[in-house]
Amino acid sequence: MNTKITLLLLFLLIGLVAFGQKIPKDKKQLIASVESHKEELISISDQIWANAEIAFQETESSKLLADYAEANGFIVERGVADIPTAFIATYGEGKPVISVLGEFDALPGISQKAQPTKEPLEAGAAGHGCGHNLFGTASLGAAIAVKEMIEAGKIKGTVKFIGTPAEEKFFGKLWMLEAGVWDDVDVNVSWHPSADTKADVQSSLAMVDFIVEFKGQAAHAAADPWNGRSASDALELYTTGINYYREHIKPTVRIHYHIQDGGQVVNVVPDYSKLWVRVRNTDTKGMLPVFEQVKKMAEGAAIMANVDYKYSLVSGIRETLVNRTGGAVMQENLELLGPLEYTEEEIAFGKKIQEMTDKPQVGMDSKIYPFEETRENPGGGSTDVGDVSWNVPNINLGVTVAPKDTPWHSWAVVACGGMSIGHKGMVMASKAMSMTMYDLFEDAKLVEEVKTEFKERKGDDVYKAMIPDGPPPIGN
Ligand SMILES: [Zn+2]
After folding, report:
1. Which of 235, 89, 188 is nearest to 396 (CA)?
2. How big is the CA angle at 120 (ends 117 and 121), to the nearest 5 degrees?
3. How far is CA 298 from CA 114, 235, 264, 273, 331, in A?
4. In a designed cystine with 254, which of 137, 280, 281, 459 is the match (CB 3.0 to 4.6 A)?
């Protein structure tokens, strides 16, 4: 084709796209609302980032968010589901009830300054290596923008911000689901900090966590080892069995273990050992038989080492039920907002992170990816948002808060979450979620369509959280 004609067509296309993407007035107002709270949201996020509190210990982080919700006119219920740091902030009345959830827990041991070279803010302390400081704050920002639209009489219904602790360990949402937190909700909206930007229509992995403890008899390791029964022998035999088993499982399965106690000193036959085991698969149905086998093998190891063993369930979570109807609306809103833009300094920061983590130095990936097909085996991690998605339709989003290929759950994500790269992603997530929630309030038919897809995907499943009897493991 002639170059001039090609250029002309290209300009026409750009013109059409720009015209088609005019942001409606109400959505401009939502964007303006998020902008008006931006400095406060950034300040809250930075405080949560600096506090970096781990699972079920997010006292200050939870309070910062709950107090800000209250200051903005929400009615806040704290200590939900016997979890001191779980809360619900509600505004408005009647249907529809649209919730947005926010996480705010950190990961142990990855404290990091907001700089592109590795250096802890406080040696040995926790850090926000999953960007949950941004997660909780962006979601609350979205809820506030929606609240202002209800207050202005533009939409009717109830908006809820649900503060959900302990996503990185124990999975706090499971106890909140058992307590019925989402029972009156029509549609839930969520997001996750990411290295790229798109409406998220991929599932996550189902998984289960459990503890195995071996108990034997201590003895002098040299003087009278025949009096000893070694709990660490059992532990080694158990992990050896698990590692042999890897040959005979589907490629979609992941098994991990963390040795939590393998004995204390070399001159004692250890009478106690403990490990944390995790089994994952693409769905709960495929995960359960592998879980049963790995669980059973603990008995074999105990017999071989002539010790006793104890199994305890920690918790288990489900794969995410995607919602493409809702995802498509989120995608439209992302496209209305357009890609994030970065300063020279931010791009240089991103490239330095990539250099320090041995990745190609390509900088930030700010483009908005096209709406994806939902893959059968998406891989990736697990989240207790999965369990929420079996109880209520869930619309998910991912927004860039770190440079391309950043190793997740690492110092590099902590670094970005405490500076403007993370803040920009947070503000964008807040806007996109508020616009999607607005669409749900505004269009009853859309809510019905989202619910219809949810019901089809869920089938006749009856939800039961995979948690042990008793209260949530606060303080463990
Ligand atoms: Zn996370």
Report:
1. 188
2. 115
3. 43, 9, 21, 12, 46
4. 280
Work out the angle at residue 168's Cα, subtended by the Cα atoms of residues 61 and 130, and round it to the nearest 5 degrees.
Answer: 75
Mutual orientation of helices 420-442 and 324-337 as an angle, nearest 10°? 120
Distance CA 145, CA 438 (A): 9
What is the whole-number distance in angstroms between the Cα of residue 278 and the centre of ligand 1? Answer: 17
Going from the Cα of 375 to the center of ligand 1, the distance in angstroms, rounded, reads: 21
Which SS3 state, helix, strand or coil, does residue 250 take? coil
| pLDDT tens-place string over residues 165-204 | 999 999 999 999 999 999 999 999 999 999 999 999 999 9
Q: How far is the CA of 133 from the centre of ligand 1 (A)?
A: 10
* Residue whose structure tokens are 């300040």: 43
Which tokens sit at 139?
């979601």
Residue 236: exposed, middle, or buried by beta-carbon count in 10 A (0-12, 13-18, 19+)? middle
Q: How far is the CA of 127 from the centre of ligand 1 (A)?
A: 12
Encode 449-473: b = buried (16+ Cβ within 10 Å), e = exposed. bbbebbeeeeeeeeeebbbeeeebb
CA of 429 relative to ligand 1 center, distance in Å: 14
Strands (E), 243-401: 254-261, 268-269, 272-281, 308-317, 394-400
Distance CA 52, CA 49 (A): 5
Characterize the bridge pairing of strands 254-261 and 272-281: antiparallel
At residue 324, φ and ψ (nearest 5 deg) are -75, -30
Q: Which two tokens stand for residue 44?
A: 């809250």
Q: Map residue 25 onto helix, strand or coil.
A: helix
For 89, the 3-state DSSP assignment is strand
* Residue 144 CA to ligand 1 centre (angstroms): 22
- The single residue listed with the structure tokens 């942001």 is 23
| Model confidence pLDDT, tens digit, residues 81-134 | 999 999 999 999 999 999 999 999 999 999 999 999 999 999 999 999 999 999
328-367 pLDDT, tens per residue? 999 999 999 999 999 999 999 999 999 999 999 999 999 9
Residues near 436 by beta carbon (within 8 Å), at least 6 away in sequence: 189, 326, 329, 330, 333, 395, 397
Region 374-396: mean pLDDT is 95
